[in-house]
Design brief:
With 582 residues, this protein is α/β, with parallel strands linked by helices. The chain has three domains: 135 residues, 3-Layer(aba) Sandwich (Rossmann fold), CATH 3.40.50; 148 residues, Reverse transcriptase/Diguanylate cyclase domain (Alpha-Beta Plaits), CATH 3.30.70.270; 175 residues, EAL domain (TIM Barrel, Alpha-Beta Barrel). It is 48% helix and 20% strand. The strands form five sheets. The chain has an eight-stranded mixed beta barrel. A five-stranded parallel sheet has the order 4-1-5-6-7, sandwiched between helices. It is elongated, with a radius of gyration of 44 Å. It binds ligand C2E and magnesium ion (2 copies). One magnesium ion binds next to strand 20.
């Protein structure tokens, strides 16, 4: 290590010699050693001029000097940022309190009175050098720390503003950029929000690694549509968003949207597979520069959600009606949560008749919402919302429980052959706890599973055939029957459906109410019934409203019927009065 450097400033060279001698170690052997590098300046001016060369760790400064005195030199050095930390010991013959105060005031760190005493000099120099070295270490450590903090901050910044998978800018970046552009008065901005259709299927069938590669490939393809001042960001998961400049109206966006949708016509080649994927697009155009970035983004998201509802590969531009619809939907969702807690869901029961014998076969349990202000609300109004929020799962189980309790009660009254049909939504059907929940309800209510029919729609089966087969088998092993509801409104064929373990087919009302007319559906119903009978499936015709419909159905061999001709869905008390008198 270098020896500490000391600059002695004194107009008298003799004084330097004295200091040098005092700071020299003389060993017993007579050999002299020096712990410091000593430098000499004969005036204040020289001292200031040679600071750079000597890089002093300490300055011993005389006060009484001809050109500028020590006090002034001290002030000047302390005012120079690069030297202000170098300690200065004033060496002075002036020892009044006033003189000393003046020295301290000028920035001196310590003082030694003349004539200099060896002990005092060596002690003060040593301690001052030590303090200075500690200060330097601390300053170096500080600089190091600052560099580390800066580096880490930069890393975090890039993590926040960049998506690590696709290397595209992130959602945070988009919001910041949008804010900047709105604040700088750019008003013709557009957000084009993209969401891949059924990306889960890709992850599910090819695995997440391929899913990730596909996202990178999509990002690369989308980037080709960027104009110089546009921005493309990855919002997260399978969502991307363009921020476009100078979009005056919807029409000027059309070519862009057309190109984007068109770019998904070609498959993506990932991991040696050709993968086709489509996107749903939501667009929001900025209205004014007062708009909040989050607001515009929310609008684009809402539009995208609407596009999704219409099916895949769709594009939707935001309008204010959507706000209203979204607001109403939120209110409804909130209301439904409360309704579940307040037990406002009750069941009505619609009779199902064996139309060949004219005898009552059983009931279909249909949920009603007994709203405190609106009265009885039909399920068509709230089931779709419960499907999206998932509330159908607890409500559906509550329905099943009430239906089983009612079935059990009627069976105890002696109506042991009655069946109870209960609707099961797609969402419930794919719920992992479905079987466990059903088992629990059966155990709690003591209802006979052989008298229970669960109604599912074709889509519940088509959405995931493998799972559907497994679940329906499990249900059947508990003796529960399975009915396909609203048959004819989905896309499945009877031949296909028959591969699933099902028992009954409910022909949709839309076929039944065209029976009298000379419509071709008339013959479709005929064929469905004949085929079902051959396949061993019991057919239930829904929505029978007229005698003609009934007679026709009886003639073509339909076994069961349900509809207003017999009765509307009724509360349990009415059912008991009309159908279950002992
Ligand atoms: P769905 O399961 O097909 O039930 C039959 C619907 O047709 C009932 O409507 C019933 O009132 C109506 N209906 C019966 N006969 C006739 C008729 O002759 N003419 C006409 N025009 N309509 C008739 P509702 O009770 O309004 O239920 C509508 C749908 O809501 C049900 O259709 C079902 O898909 C769903 N739903 C009802 N309750 C539940 C439930 O507890 N859980 C689930 N997941 N869905 C339910
Ligand atoms: Mg039904
Ligand atoms: Mg139905």
């Amino acid at each position: 290590m270098n020896k500490p450097s000391i600059l002695v400033v004194d107009d008298e060279p003799d004084n330097f010699d004295v200091i040098e001698t005092f700071l020299t170690n003389t060993q017993d052997s007579g050999q002299a050693t020096q712990d410091y590098q000593l430098h000499y300046a004969a005036s204040g001016k020289d001292a200031i001029a040679c600071l750079e060369v000597f890089q002093p760790d300490l300055i011993l400064l005389d006060v009484m000097m001809p050109d500028i005195d020590g006090i002034e030199v001290c002030k000047k050095i302390k005012a120079m940022p690069q030297w202000s930390a170098v300690p200065i010991i004033v060496v002075t013959a002036l020892t009044t309190k006033k003189d000393l105060a003046q020295c301290l005031f000028a920035g001196a760190d310590d003082f030694i009175s003349k004539p200099v005493n060896r002990l005092e000099l060596t002690a003060r120099v040593r301690s001052m050098i030590r303090i200075h070295q500690q200060y330097q270490q601390l300053a170096a450590f500080n600089t190091q720390l600052e560099a580390m903090v800066q580096e880490r901050t930069a890393q975090l910044q890039s993590m926040i503003f960049e998506d690590s998978l696709t290397k595209l800018p992130s959602r945070a970046f988009l919001l910041q950029e949008l804010k900047k552009r709105l604040q700088s008065g750019q008003s013709s901005l557009a957000l084009v929000y993209l969401d891949c259709d059924q990306f889960k299927l890709i992850n599910g069938s090819f695995g997440h690694a391929v899913g990730n590669q596909l996202l990178i490939a999509i990002a690369n393809r989308l980037q080709q549509h960027l104009r110089p001042s546009d921005v493309l960001v990855r919002m997260g998961e399978d969502e991307f968003c363009f921020l476009l400049n100078q979009i005056e109206n919807e029409t000027s966006l059309e070519p862009f949207l057309h190109n984007i949708l068109g770019s998904f016509l070609q498959p993506f080649v990932v991991a040696n597979c050709e993968i086709f994927i489509t996107v749903s697009i939501g667009v929001a155009l900025s209205r004014n520069t007062d708009q909040q970035p989050e607001e515009l983004l929310q609008d684009a998201d809402t539009a995208m959600y609407q596009a999704k509802l219409r099916g895949k590969e769709s594009c939707q531009i935001f309008d204010h009606q959507m706000h209203l619809a979204m607001f109403n939907r939120l209110i409804l969702e909130n209301d439904l949560q409360r309704a579940l807690a307040q037990q406002e869901f009750i069941l009505y029961y619609q009779p199902i008749i064996n139309i060949q014998t004219q005898k009552l076969a059983g009931f279909e349990a249909l949920v009603r919402w007994q709203h405190p202000e609106r009265g009885m609300v039909s399920p068509a109004e709230f089931i779709p919302s419960m499907e999206t929020t998932g509330l159908i799962i607890p409500v559906g189980m509550e329905v099943l429980k009430q239906a089983c309790q009612q079935l059990r009660a009627w069976q105890l009254q002696g109506w042991t052959d009655l069946t109870m049909s209960v609707n099961l939504s797609v969402r419930q059907f794919s719920c992992a706890t479905l079987l466990a929940d059903i088992d629990r309800i059966l155990a709690e209510t003591g209802a006979n599973p052989a008298n229970i029919k669960l109604e599912i729609t074709e889509s519940a089966i088509m959405d995931n055939a493998e799972t559907a087969i497994a679940i329906t088998k499990e249900l059947r092993s508990r003796q529960i029957q399975i009915s396909i509801d609203d048959f004819g409104t989905g896309y499945s064929s009877l031949g296909y459906l028959h591969r699933f373990p099902i028992d009954n087919l409910k022909i949709d009302r839309s076929f039944v109410n065209q029976i009298q007319s000379e419509n071709r559906n008339y013959h479709v119903v005929d064929t469905i019934i004949t085929l079902s009978n051959q396949l061993g499936l019991a057919v239930i015709a829904e929505g029978i409203e007229t005698k003609e419909q009934l007679e026709w159905l009886q003639n073509v061999g339909c076994k069961y019927g349900q509809g207003y001709l017999f009765n509307k869905p009724l509360p349990a008390s009415e059912v008991e009065k009309i159908y279950l008198r002992s």
